[in-house]
Design goal:
Elements (H helix, E strand, L loop, with lengths): L2 H8 L5 H15 L6 E6 L11 H12 L3 E6 L21 H15 L8 E5 L1 H4 L4 H8 L4 H4 L3 H9 L5 H17 L3 E5 L3 H13 L6 E5 L8 E2 L6 E2 L23 H6 L3 H11 L4 H9 L2 H17 L1 H14 L15 E4 L5 E3 H7 L6 H9 L3 E3 L2 E2 L5 E3 L3 E6 L3 E7 L1
Parallel strand pairs: 1-2, 1-4, 2-3, 4-5, 8-14
Antiparallel strand pairs: 6-7, 9-12, 10-11, 10-13, 13-14
Helix pairs in contact: 9-10, 12-14, 14-15, 16-17
Length: 412
Amino acid sequence: MNVDKQLEILGRGVVPKIWADMKGPLAHKLQRGKPLRVKVGFDPTAPDLHLGHTVVMNKMRQFQELGHHLIFLVGDFTAMIGDPSGKSSTRPPLTREEVLRNAETYKAQVFKILDADRTEVAFNSAWLGALNAEEMIRLAAQYTVARLLERNDFRSRYQAGRPIAVHEFLYPLLQAYDSVALKADVELGGNDQLFNLMVGRDVMKEYELEPQVILTTELLFGTDAHPDPQGGQLVGEKMSKSLGNYIGVDDPPAGESGMFGKVMSVCDPLMWHYYDLLSSVSPEQLQALRQGHPKQAKRALAMEITSRYHGEAAATEAAVEFERLHPASGTDRGIPQEVPQVQLALEQETVFVSRVLVDAGLAKSNSEARRLIQQGGVQVDGERVADTAELRRGGEHLIKVGKRRFRRVVLV
């Protein structure tokens, strides 16, 4: 593929300012006509991935499909430090056993996106663990404390009097040395990795290597993001398991917490944001989708994402199930053929609905349950309830939370 066409594909979803700075250097590297060495590092500090993590992985896949050499770097050495990016305190250290266990889960999930046969997997302990004291001092000499304190998280912690451990200062330098060891042409990362990636460019010069091109991707909004009524721009938190606004890589294809239904539930502006950052459709296909009906575009996106992680057959079944539960005409919403049933033993004659939601596994806490009720997202036997509503012992109720989550609750 010619250089201009590659640039058109690779520029999608990249932070505009970074693309403006790096498009020229990337074009220069591409014009040589040789496969680029594209490095992406992941510290396996936790075992599970959601679609927010896959934004960079989709960019990895684009490079791979264009014939470039992809290096999936497992930061088994740096994970024992923990990336301090965005952190207000020192991370607790992980054991090597924890890191390696998480790394195996990462690889299983990552290769749902990447071609395993065409991906080089490297572990940075191979070279970082071999650095002697003299080499570590030489690396540390490449950067000043003043430059490191330019990072927002370090600066804010320093100004607030919160401790910064010396090994945290080493983290961006060790990540930079990964690029030296791998002779990377390109490094990819989320926009929160910008400082670390820039350090890599500086350190490569000190080791007499051509600086890597860096491309940072936008952070993915969570499923609850919505347009600002004033300016129309999307507002909301980034996708996060702790906030509950995520679509997990290992989510089931269908059902009350299914991948297909979660994609279908997002608002239309957020759908186009997901197309930009998650989809592999061509620019021409995307333009055609924008000219059609939003519901059809959303269904196509849900099919693409669900097929990627579960296969086309499972995605088709999920679509059929979703359409049965959400008919195109009327306002009724279907009930799944199989609704999980729970039996709750009451200590008193009555119980608040919010407490039932928690005990039935429909909310994580009383505060979350009350919030769901106050937002009008909870129905008991087809009727919305107030946050002061109570249920009596001896009753059996069908509870619905949101659009897809059901429980049949028996109170004894």
